[in-house]
Write a structure and sequence with these properties.
With about 260 residues, the chain is an alpha/beta fold. Helices cover about 30% and strands about 20% of the residues.
């Protein structure tokens, strides 16, 4: 199912995204005992993390596991680090055990970091399954409970940029990306691949600001050949939700796209 939710202003969008995540977390914990939540970088996600960071009592945070959908290849204490951003906006304020914070080891080479992260994910799901007396096939792709994504003005998401080889990756779950053209920062990246993203139980895009309006129109009205990275996000059996503010969604009504599920 695909949903489009348009909010009157960015603050309403951030609040709704925060509540959406908390509800997904509650449901996952009730169903399976943990919530595997994948974070995005960027300023729109950051605003949502600031709200989540105030929700100390809203969730059993000891059962939430945090992953990152992409990372910039800088040390974890660098201002461009997606890990640092999430820690400063949210994780530092929540009672989350250190072992639940599964960061990308961006201080390694990009290739090493990608392989190590894929192994970290494999290990996490191996443990989850073995706790239930099950065993995964070595190629079984895991379904994260919620993958949060932003959208760049160029139609990138995570660190999947238009026209780059990472878009064609069909085997790996995590891959290294050379990144030497805008948008900044011009540092290599490590990113979830489309097969891993599309295996999620749910994917949520959060998009704010008038600078995203033209791209969002193009993305949701389906006019791009070849398709943009964001258009390749099509969960196989999970839900896809677009949460956008009025400024970003301003051109959608002329296509008959209103806040709705379709
Ligand atoms: C990153 C991101 C990236 C981001 C979008 C949207 O590492 O930069 O993961 O994909 O989410 O570029 O960012 P804004 O919300 O800042 O526009």
């Amino acid at each position: 199912m695909v949903s489009l939710l348009i909010f009157p202003d960015p603050v309403e969008l951030y609040k709704a995204a925060c509540q959406h995540i908390l509800r997904a977390g509650e449901r996952a914990i009730a169903q399976q005992g943990y919530f595997a939540f994948v974070l995005a970088g960027g300023s729109t996600p950051q605003a949502v993390y600031r709200l989540l960071g105030q929700e100390h009592a809203a969730l059993d945070w000891g059962r939430v596991h945090f992953f990152w959908g992409d990372e910039r290849c800088v040390p974890p204490d660098h201002p461009d680090s997606n890990y640092l951003m999430a820690r400063e906006a949210m994780l530092a304020y929540l009672p989350v055990p250190q072992e639940n914070i599964h960061r990308i080891e961006s201080e390694l080479t990009p290739g090493q970091a990608a392989r190590a992260y894929e192994e970290q994910i494999r290990e996490f799901y191996r443990k989850v399954l073995s706790n239930r007396g099950l065993r995964a096939g070595s190629s079984a792709i895991p379904s994260f409970d919620l993958i949060l994504l932003g959208m760049g003005e160029d139609g990138h998401t995570a660190s999947l940029f238009p026209g780059t080889p990472a878009l064609a990756e069909s085997q790996r779950w995590v891959t290294a990306v050379e990144h030497n053209q805008p948008p900044p920062p011009l540092v290599d990246r490590v990113t979830f691949t489309l097969p891993l993203i599309n295996a999620a139980r749910q994917v949520v895009f959060i998009v704010a600001g008038e600078n995203k309006a033209a791209r969002l129109e193009q993305v949701l009205a389906g006019r791009s050949d070849p398709p943009l990275p964001v258009q390749l996000v099509q969960p196989a059996s999970g839900n896809l939700t677009w949460m956008v503010d009025q400024a970003a969604g301003v051109r959608l009504s002329s296509w008959g796209l209103e806040s709705q599920q379709y």
